[in-house]
């Protein structure tokens, strides 16, 4: 390609990002997500000037719509509480908007936009017919009774139902929203609509429209992706020492599948701190604490006295390991923590959470030869199985765990292959950040060219 084409591509990307910064100066998480993707796309615009002609980047970075609404609900003391709800419908070129609902006090428009923007490309990578969206509320489920959570979910869906549907927008769970919350949301939607539209929500309980293997999907998919990264490097996960942050669904089932493949997982965490078990995490204890009893991870040491609990989460990345799997929340690994991991010999970092590594950390990993699996590729297993749930709902069929898990495994292999090949095609061989960004973007951009300007 000529220097003129390259300069034109760089100028175009810089101009669009500059406009984006001006419009969204108060939204740091969104700008961080956009910058990470933009940096990957210069070679795409260099080779495809038609994307510049049709201004694809500026069109794709602007959401189709953002819905914000009041959620008023009654607590157990009969006092009225008020929260804010969001749904960001970002892009539906490939299929109906698809993305989770997050109930957490940190939820704001910037976080919703960054998650929805990432979701566009993650969903495109799965090969399923789903577009990108995200939603949630600053409601905090912690400390709330089951009845309070039910009333909040009903109030939330009473506002949201106008904007969702099986062929319009299909929410799912995320932080603070599991099968229980999805069940309450689904029940309210049915009452309002007076119809059984099972495909409007995913993450439902099996037997009630939900798919087997959905709970396990993100964690299992993460390990399938790591296995492909290691296979490409003529290595395996067998006997590798693994550190996992978090102890929710993603972390628990990443630990389960890693152990199944012969790895030794030595640490995991929750918001209070982390546990280190040199003999290997006993997953049965973690599951009992987190899935059955709802206790803090610190209780683990009462069952395993040789394990150590440390308050605070940052120190988990000082534990020497071969594989690091950040599965907790965004921006949990910064440049300093990345350098510590590298100094301690980490070989693979793969993101189970959304944007858990900041740009400085990502660059440290890439510059030092660490195999790095970015979130939009590595944790796409959850939304992939959500799309499989939609397919089952549409056809009134119910697949076995083995069928769904097999499809998930193949999808994760395909995501790795597409990301790897895209990186190679555009001159960044081995860089899965660039590869996954480009592979997802090109699918959506081509769709936008086909349907014309709107």
Automatic annotation (TrEMBL):
Question: For the Glutamate/phenylalanine/leucine/valine/L-tryptophan dehydrogenase C-terminal domain, which residue ranges apply?
Answer: 211-452
Pfam families according to UniProt: ELFV_dehydrog (PF00208), ELFV_dehydrog_N (PF02812)
Molecular function (GO) terms listed? glutamate dehydrogenase (NADP+) activity
Q: Which UniProt keywords apply?
A: Oxidoreductase
Q: Which InterPro entries match?
A: Aminoacid_DH-like_N_sf (IPR046346), Glu/Leu/Phe/Val/Trp_DH (IPR006095), Glu/Leu/Phe/Val/Trp_DH_C (IPR006096), Glu/Leu/Phe/Val/Trp_DH_dimer (IPR006097), Glu_DH (IPR014362), Glu_Leu_Phe_Val_DH (IPR050724), NAD(P)-bd_dom_sf (IPR036291), NAD_bind_Glu_DH (IPR033922)
- What NCBIfam families does the record tag this protein with? PRK09414.1
Q: What does the subunit comment say?
A: Homohexamer.
Q: Which family does it belong to?
A: Belongs to the Glu/Leu/Phe/Val dehydrogenases family.
The protein, known as: Glutamate dehydrogenase
Q: Which gene encodes it?
A: gdhA
């Amino acid at each position: 390609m000529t220097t003129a084409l390259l300069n034109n591509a760089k100028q175009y990307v810089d101009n669009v990002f500059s406009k984006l910064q001006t419009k969204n100066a108060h939204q740091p998480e969104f700008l961080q997500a956009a910058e990470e993707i933009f940096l990957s796309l210069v070679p795409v615009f260099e080779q495809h000037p038609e994307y510049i002609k049709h201004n694809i980047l500026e069109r794709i970075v602007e959401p189709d719509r953002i819905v914000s609404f009041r959620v008023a609900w009654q607590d157990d003391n009969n006092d009225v509480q008020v929260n804010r709800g969001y749904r960001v419908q970002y892009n539906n070129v490939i299929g109906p908007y698809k993305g989770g609902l997050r109930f957490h006090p940190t939820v704001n428009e910037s976080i919703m936009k960054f998650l929805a923007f990432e979701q566009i490309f993650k969903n495109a990578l799965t090969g399923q017919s789903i577009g990108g969206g995200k939603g949630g509320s600053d409601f905090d489920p912690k400390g709330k009774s089951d009845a309070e959570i039910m009333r909040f979910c009903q109030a939330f869906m009473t506002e949201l139902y106008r904007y969702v549907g099986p062929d319009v927008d299909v929410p799912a769970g995320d932080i603070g929203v599991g099968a229980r919350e999805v069940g309450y949301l689904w029940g309210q939607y049915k009452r309002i609509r007076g119809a059984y539209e099972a495909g409007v929500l995913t993450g439902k309980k099996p037997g009630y429209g939900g798919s087997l293997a959905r709970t396990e999907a993100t964690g299992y998919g993460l390990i399938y992706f790591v296995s492909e990264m290691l296979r490409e490097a003529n290595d395996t996960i067998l006997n590798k020492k693994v550190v996992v942050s978090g102890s929710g669904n993603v972390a628990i089932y990443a630990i389960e599948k890693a152990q199944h493949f012969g790895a030794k997982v030595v640490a995991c965490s929750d918001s209070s701190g982390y546990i280190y078990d040199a003999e290997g995490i006993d997953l049965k204890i973690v599951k009992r604490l987190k899935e059955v009893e709802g206790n803090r991870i610190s209780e683990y040491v009462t069952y395993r006295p040789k394990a150590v609990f440390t308050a605070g989460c940052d120190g988990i990345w000082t534990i020497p390991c071969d594989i690091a799997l950040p599965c907790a929340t965004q921006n949990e690994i910064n440049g300093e923590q990345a350098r510590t991991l590298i100094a301690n010999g980490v070989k693979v970092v793969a993101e189970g959470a959304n944007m858990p590594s900041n740009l400085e950390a990502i660059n440290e990993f890439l510059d030092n030869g660490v195999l790095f699996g970015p979130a939009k590729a590595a944790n796409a297993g959850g939304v992939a199985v959500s799309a499989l749930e939609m397919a089952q709902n549409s056809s009134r069929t119910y697949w076995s765990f083995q069928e769904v898990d097999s499809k998930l495994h193949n999808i994760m292999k395909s995501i790795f292959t597409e990301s790897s090949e895209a990186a190679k095609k555009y001159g960044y061989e081995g860089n899965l950040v660039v590869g996954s960004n480009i592979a997802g973007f090109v699918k959506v951009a081509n769709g936008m060219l086909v349907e014309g300007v709107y």
